Amino acid sequence: MPMRDLSAGPRVLLRRLRELMAEPLDPQERLDRIVRQIASNMVAEVCSVYVLRSDGVLELYATEGLNPEAVHLSQLKMGQGLVGTIAASAQPLNLSDAQAHPAFRYLPETGEEIYHSFLGVPILRAGRTLGVLVVQNKASRTYREDEVEALETTAMVIAEMIATGELKKITKPGLELDLTRPVTIEGDGYNEGLGLGHVILHEPRVVVTNLLNEDAESEVRRLAEALGSLRISIDDMLSRRDVATEGEHREVLETYRMFAYDQGWVRRMEEAIHNGLTAEAAVEKVQSDTKARMMRLTDPYLRERMHDFDDLANRLLRQLTGFSGRSIGEGMPADAIIFARAMGAAELLDYPRERLRGLVLEDGAVTSHVVIVARAMGIPVVGQAVGAVALAENGDAAIIDGDDGQLHLRPVSDVLKAYEEKVRLRARRQEQFRALRDVDPVTKDGKRISLMMNAGLIVDLPHLPESGADGIGLFRTELQFMIASTMPKLEEQEAFYRNVIRQADGLPVTFRALDIGGDKVVSYFRAHEEENPALGWRAIRLSLDRPGLLRTQLRALLRASADAELRMMLPMVTEVAEIHAVRDLLQKEVQHLSKFGHSLPRKLQFGAMLEVPALMWQLDELMAEVDFVSVGSNDLFQFSMAADRGNARVSDRFDMLGRPFLRILRDIVRAAERNKTPLTLCGEMAGKPLSAMALIGLGFRSVSMAPTSIGPVKAMLLSLDADRLTETLNAALDDRQPREPVRELLTRFAAENGIPV
Predict the structure, then answer these.
(1) pLDDT tens string 575-621
(2) Is 177 domain-assigned?
(3) GAF domain location, by residue (predicted)?
(4) Domain range spanning residue 64?
């Protein structure tokens, strides 16, 4: 059915509004003339603009037809009266008899009792309600559909006026508009630390500046062409052979295709164009309307579909505007706090480290790889910060508190001062930890604990002497691959590893063989889509299937360690046979280098990571085959509990200090003692004083952690009687009718013995 041709009225109005926006007027005069133009064009006796303040009050900012004395005096709370109802629901109200509506509230100062018909629409931007635009008439009538559309379109112009901050000049002193109100979001602290800085949106929104069209038909054609390109790209993704035919990713793409071909969506955008908007402004209008309605849904499935729709609309906006995003670092402040719904580890590494002050995630979990990388970089992280991306704008002031899991957006001066003082206190606390740098990490009863640090980048290495660590217990070699645009060549890898060894200055470095796959995406390495990537083709599995990749790394490590000690370990070992296979490749590389006269390491320590529960039934065979074992607590925990560490709904469901997992760790310690095999642990557990205390109680004498954690863990162990804790902990783990959780028992033990945790 062809689109009906709307009257020229809305287009004339929008053209006049565009002229008004360009004139050098003060904000109140501009707003007063806008409402007069709307009233005249729509043959309305009243037109009023209500703006939402930060205190949740809708204030009358301009009116044509009501008592002018009511401007900046009349107020309604969110949800109160017809205007408040529109703001709360983000949906229009079209009434022939407004006073008969149950939400009607009479404001005597306005003189509106003589008006019966009422049309109000929300003023929306990015799905957020910024105010309400209203027209009224004395005669009872229902406004036509095209009039509703025209008023919604006009509201976009006012939304931009609010967003630019122009109305701040006529806002009463001491009050703020909702768009600039301070917001505090309670999330989860994923990495300790404080960050004061300014927002950088990881996926910046397309800002539509050209709102009004000159030729509706040409804009409809532009929309159709962009939709065609978008549909082709989605169809292409679905038809590719490397996209699995089943799985959650497939469902997302199918949802995209459903939205892309939805005629209702297309019709609403075309109507907005015929009402005077450009194609991109029409996409933004429909996106904002839909988002505002869906943001109020409680069903998690439907809210997830909102994100799918939002992403699709953003793709369409990029098609129309040619927006390709900014290059990493472009326009980035020196104190950037990255805001993202979700993020891969490699994406974080693209940002200049020296400018990063924090990371805010709406999704993710404390043990997801991007958080691990952020922790290695010493960046505070707050996760599960629901709604943060929608509420933030590039350049907004922000405070991230990784200790308490709080995010303060556009903080008031008192909050800012409090955090500046907190930063100073934290600096003094870090100074106290630095004073322990040269203190030997020995418990009160004489047990020496080796405190190692985790690393993966050259920028991590200065932390080694600063932290007082005994060495690097885990060097993640995959980070070099993740930040490179092409596969690092043999010579590049060799130079990199030699630099690491040189900067370690004689302290031991344990290199983990390449661990890519899962969420560790390497752009130049094409991997197949997998339904369960954490359980799929990754780490040693991938390396054994691509022996050329593994042999190049082994050769580089051997050459870089010439006349020094080489410690290397294999990730995600499932069967002892995998160790044999890698040993064979390693021996071939040793023979190759010897044949051509290359110097070899004076000592080679070959180890394995214990991350897969299947090794629990091969412990003695494992210990006999390797020089040392390193427990990867993050993966071992997620696989043991069948709880995806990247899924926030289940990642915190089970406790690492719960009896089942501590019993697993105790069995590993006992097997290492039985076989006289050196044992260490690297992972989330090692870096927190309370869980590190539990590890010492279980019998671990070497742990590896982020460099910032070494001071607090050392302070803990210096006050600890390890034998007494072991006795207490073993009794708790052997108790078949436990009376209290182990975490509570450990917390009480620390408090009673004056141990700082």
Answers:
(1) 999 999 999 999 999 999 999 999 999 999 999 999 999 999 999 99
(2) no
(3) 26-172
(4) 8-169
